[in-house]
Amino acid sequence: MESLASSTTRVPGFRKRVMVDSDRLETIVSDLRVSIPADMQEAREILTQKDSVINQAHLEARRVKESAEHEALALTASAKEEQATRIDETEIVKEAHARAEEITQQAAQEAQEVTQEAQRRAFQIMEAAEAAGTTRRDGADQYARETLFDLEERLSIQLGQVRRGIDSLGLDVDSRVPS
User: Fold this and answer.
1) How many domains does the chain have?
2) 32 and 121 in contact (C-beta within 8 Å)?
3) 3-class SS at 9?
4) Exposure letters 70-93 (e unless 16+ CB within 10 A, then b)
5) Please, which residues have CB within 8 angstroms of residue 36's CB and are 6 or more apart in sequence?
6) Residue 119 C-alpha from the chain's centroid
7) Contact call for residues 46 and 107 (beta carbons, < 8 A)
8) Structural domain span for residue 88
9) Are 48 and 42 in contact (CB under 8 A)?
10) Which end of the chain is less packed: N or C, by CB atoms within 10 Å?
11) What would the pLDDT profile of 19-36 be if each residue is shown by its tens digit?
12) Which residues lie closer than 8 Å to 146 by C-beta, 6 or more apart?
């Protein structure tokens, strides 16, 4: 956008208004349209990775739990109860749950940041396009206004010359106009 702004052409009689190369503007808008879907894809990939890590953590927790339960089956009935209580409280399970929660929060935060950045870019593109459209429309209106005023002035001069020619010939306009 900065390169587009620096390559504008000032239009005489339009104060601070400039003309913008529409091809360059369209190229920039097209580039931005391409980059936004890429950001959205990146956010989706982060969410997919988050789900994968959570699934791995759950699988690891299940594996540890099943291993502990298998060992508990080999123990006596009273030892089984004690072992089952220990399974739920083991550090490995606690760490797996804590790590899964941490990864979930981090992935959600990254996805939110990418989404916000994509929305921010889209809003900036829309604002720039609206501003460019308004500027072009205003410039075109001003040009048309000036051209019409110039035409009116020229026609007035021509009409005055015709009137003076008629007056110099001594013709009465009313006698020339058919009734």
Assistant:
1) 1
2) yes
3) strand
4) eebeeeeeeeeeebeeebeeeeeb
5) 118, 121, 122
6) 5
7) yes
8) 2-176
9) no
10) C
11) 777 787 788 778 777 777
12) 13
Q: Tell me if 3 sits within 8 A of 89, measured CB to CB.
A: no
**Contact indicator for 72, 83 with CB cutoff of 8 Å:** yes
Residues 101-143 have pLDDT tens digits of: 999 999 999 999 999 999 999 999 999 999 999 999 999 999 9
**Residue indicated by tokens 């994509």:** 118
Residue 69: how many other CB atoms lie within 10 Å = 13
Contact between 52 and 44 (Cβ < 8 Å):
no
Q: Is 43 exposed, middle or buried (0-12, 13-18, 19+ CB in 10 A)?
A: buried
